[in-house]
Amino acid sequence: MGPHPAVAAIRLAVRRVLHEVLLDARPEVAPLVIAACSGGADSMALASALAFEAPRVGVRAGAVTVDHGLQAGSGARAREVAERLASLGLDPVDAVAVEVGRGGGPEAAARTARYAALDAVAERYRATAVLLGHTRDDQAETVLLGLARGSGTRSLAGMAAVSLGPSGAKGPGANGSGDPAHRYRRPFLAIDRQTTRKACLVQSLPVWDDPHNADPSFTRSRVRHEALPVLEKALGRGVVEALARTARLSRDDADALDAWALEAQRAATRPDGTLEIAALRTLPPAVRRRVLRRAAIAAGSPAGSLFARHIEETDRLITAWRGQRPLNLPGRVEARRQGGRLVLQQANQ
Prior knowledge:
Layout: H1 5-24, E1 32-36, H2 41-57, E2 60-67, H3 74-87, E3 93-97, H4 106-125, E4 129-131, H5 136-149, H6 153-156, E5 162-164, E6 183-185, H7 193-202, H8 219-235, H9 239-268, E7 275-276, H10 277-281, H11 285-299, H12 308-319, E8 327-329, E9 333-338, E10 341-346
Parallel strand pairs: 1-2, 1-4, 2-3, 4-6
Antiparallel strand pairs: 5-6, 7-10, 8-9, 9-10
Helix pairs in contact: 1-2, 1-7, 2-7, 5-8, 5-9, 9-11, 11-12
């Protein structure tokens, strides 16, 4: 008799990712894959599946838990989670304490601190991949949040199944080893939260439910416990799956548009770094605005502070030119039209 269907589902998802890791790895080196685990049902299910599958395919498996220090007893809880992970046979296992700042709100600050810690652990152990336990439900929540921001196709694309770690793009790693930067991988984006919880239950894995996940002061918590249930009641139980499918389709579209924009930017860029107005004017708006966003970021505008309204106003310098004054973009970047060129540069230059 085989494993419970929930356990089989999580193991299959992890097995597929491990096969992808092996395809990218050097054959003479057994790659190390690390599971990021908070102790919740999603990440404990992930860790258990990794511990089961990794030795069967020739992959080394470890884990890390991050103590954000935001709740009383968080340090002891992190040590307890680390002990559970080690009992599964994972090695190395690390528990890392971080200091959460205040920039961008509590959720964003905690996320920034967490990914910095995961990236540091991956570099320390030269891990090939870090697995994250985000589920289809998490993806649906992310799409709803993106829709509320109104930031375009990319914001509806949700979380990628594979993304590079913040240490950089492909190429020599931050540790100087010459290995590629590690990749974050999300095996469970097609699996719902109920399945991961069931997998923990039938395996008798203890889980910790973070009280922040039910705290209405956090935006994602309100989406999870208020917005999505209302949508499912009004539209039916397929809402979560439909939102996750929207993410997949939007990501494909956004990737194609980004690739088009990169080529268009190269064609429109003059030797002095300015952009040719005539070349930009003929582009579809979705492509042209991506070119403008890339150019603004390259000039020094922080990506997180550059909103749709900034790009729309910059776009008007091309499509609705009436002698407007230069625009002030985030990061003290100035956008101005100069003859047949668009100039984006630091205001003090």
